Amino acid sequence: MPIDFNFMVGGEAGQGVQSVGFLLAKVFACGGYHVFADQDYESRVRGGHNFFRVRVSNDKVGAIAEDVDILIALDSDSIQLHQAEMASPGIIIFDGEKIKGVSGNNGSLLSIPLEKMAEEKAGDKLMLNTVALGAALSAVSYDLTMLNRVLADHFGSGEVGNKNIAAAKAGYDYVQSERKGKFRKIKPLSEAKRMLLTGNEAISLGAIAAGCRFMAAYPMTPASSIMEYMAAKSKDLDLVMIHAEDEIAAINMAIGAAYAGVRAMTATSGSGLCLMVEGIGLAGITETPIVIIDAQRPGPAVGLPTRTEQGDLQFVLHAHHGDFPRAVLAPATIEDAFWVTVKAFNWAERYQLPVIILTDQHLASSHATVDPLDLSQVTIDRGILFSEKEDAPSEYMRHRVTKSGVSPRAFPGLGKALVVTDCDEHDEEGHLTEDAAERTAQVQKRLRKISPLNKEIGTLRKYGSRGAETTLIGWGSTYGAIHEAVDILRKEETSVNMLHLNELWPFPTKAVVDTVSKARNSYVIENNATGQLAQLIKAETGYDVSRRILKFDGRPFTPAYIAEAVRKETR
Amino acid sequence: MVTTSDYAGLKPAWCPGCGNFGILKALNRALTEMDIEPHQVLLVSGIGQAGKLPHYTRGNVFNSLHGRPVPPAIGAKIANSELIVIAVSGDGDAYGEGGNHFLHAARRNHDITYLVHNNQVYGLTKGQASPTSDVGFVTKTTPYGATNPVNPIALAIVSGASFVARGFAGDMDHLATLIKKGITHRGFALIDILQPCVSFNHKNTFQWYKERVYKLEDEKHDPRDRKAALEKALEWGDKIPIGVIYKGDLPVYEDQLPALNKSPLVKQKIDPRRVEKLLAEFM
Predict the structure, then answer these.
(1) A305 to each of A17, A116, A242, A361, A484, how far by Cα in Å?
(2) pTM of whole model > 0.95?
(3) Is A395 in CB contact (< 8 Å) with chain B?
(4) Residue in A244, A254, A282 nearest the CB of B65
(5) Distance CA B164, CA B161 (A)
(6) What pLDDT is recorded for position A105?
(7) CA distance A280 to chain B (A)
(8) Quick one: A4-179 is in which CATH superfamily?
(9) What is the ipTM score, two decimals?
(10) Contacts of A239 in chain B (CB under 8 A)
(11) Candidates 3.40.50.920, 3.30.420.100, 3.40.190.10, 3.30.830.10; CATH matching A457-570
């Protein structure tokens, strides 16, 4: 029987919700399952209500489900808030000695003296969440030795690791003796080697694979873990992550490093990107290749700091004044985030322009299992470089007007060629000019880069039956949820397919027209309030996708939510 | 052998008699006397009349946005630690629009030299008060007179800069010596340069500065004494000290970066397989 099983860990910030959730995801990933896990947290360090959902399946999963099979409730709020989401049969694991007055379906309530057992068996009552972890895995009769291995890996083989193993065993044994055989069993599958990655980790790895050795950033949820990862690896991998004084400094530092010849990036979220806008134009006019990650969160201004939205699309397409080329990419999945990042660095250098990668909190901090990446597929293209062997250094002109619009790059100090550039309009050498003809030539030269870039862009993902009644159109992180919604609807004999964009600018007009012009009923599915992709499609193709399924409450789509919205619309 | 002709750049578009000419000459002389070739130098400037300086000499040039020469200068220095990186600003660029970068570059003590042409007024935008305009300085945007000026020398010292000096555009020999010291110094080297603006500042003129400046080299000032340096930093009015005000051995940001130990970042090879062992950590 196929397995599609959902855990939830709920509790206050500071109770270890994140670590139990991660360990659950990890232990099933190690057991050969596909896992998708998301995090829902408040903008606070202690208290409040956070939860971590882990979906475990035999098949590839790219979204979260709504039903909960096992809930680990570390506080009473978690029971109250999520009882209605429980599947039948489901189990709520909680500490009845600490959480009093719990009522509801008795069959689903599993009270365990978590804190007492943590103190007795591990000598540390804080390890109650590891007791709960052991209990949850016991409820599905999962392999305890696999959990022990994951705990040892995570906490080390010293005292802390041993105590956690003891705590997990206590929870595991308790449930085995109380409820043996009363719930469904999940056994580890083959030892499939998959990674468990967050979107931010996939981006960091993609950047390192692409040869990014310089990052400057300022902490901002949900982008911060990229700078933390890069900093953690800076010593072993000879790269530099500088925690700048603000986002303005961050993007300008990255531009300086890129000008000097090092692949460079920055990462932030919407309101941090607002501060970086001047840098986008600076990279545009100086033709400096940089990669900018915008991990979106709901705006405007501080908005909902820890939640998700796709509200920056129209912003990043237009951020800065004047006309200049840029590229905008939006990874569809966590695996895609790796490849899109590699591509971003190549395009940035090939066309010498800013490349913006749009993710969001949902993609940035969700975990998914990813099959081993074939690094032989990572290519490095640094674009056209000036060679002092072929041309005299004195002849070098950084902004030489060429047919393709791309001027060969030289790096300052590596040769005798002087590399001159300016945020003022400049002549071919890079010196500031107000000459009308030179201005016109430089603007046209920069804009000439759009056409070849446009030819590279436009990986449209299509899924479902050709010529279907209904076409769902999405972009970025919603791919997994829309894909599964299509599956749900097709099982109900609904004629539906999907079109998904992960490369948004320069807009793949022809490819989109090909699909949209043939679709009978098109819907955009977007995590924003106004249908920003629909606006873009209208502007670029003339087609009006007026049917819009929009969600802007800061929470991600689930497949069931999309399927129900489509049912309502098409009924 | 480097000669002054190596540093002959485009014809300046500054006003005749501008203090910037003295600064340009002093910089060219310093670089020539240090036998530095133009391709070894990166000049990063901002916006304002000072920001145009790199175009009027020779070298690698990144003419950046208003207030922002310091961050790209830092990025470029980290990318290629063999470059001699000199950032160039005016007082509005450095202490107004770029104030935060100035503080933090000093605090982290990056290994760059920062020349600030301080004419106590906005030139390019035609005569508005600047962050360093003297109290009571009346302009089109300060009809009731400028309020308290920032004290860049004191700010740099307390923020952690390891080399803080003041020069005068009217004393080219002295200024060239200061620039040489700044370039040689490892760490953040601020050289704030008193620069008369002949068009818009009729208070702080050549004559005004000339009557007031005195050289610290002629006094018993010890630039390694931070307290004494701060006292000199607070001197402004009838007497204005020029010379090296503070010089200390403070940790340099770039020295703590292990990635720069082997070779400049820009010379390190790109190899996607480097990520292999990281991928294994996620299995």
Answers:
(1) 19, 36, 23, 9, 28
(2) yes
(3) no
(4) A282
(5) 7
(6) 66
(7) 11
(8) Pyruvate-ferredoxin oxidoreductase, PFOR, domain III (3.40.920.10)
(9) 0.98
(10) 259, 265
(11) 3.40.50.920
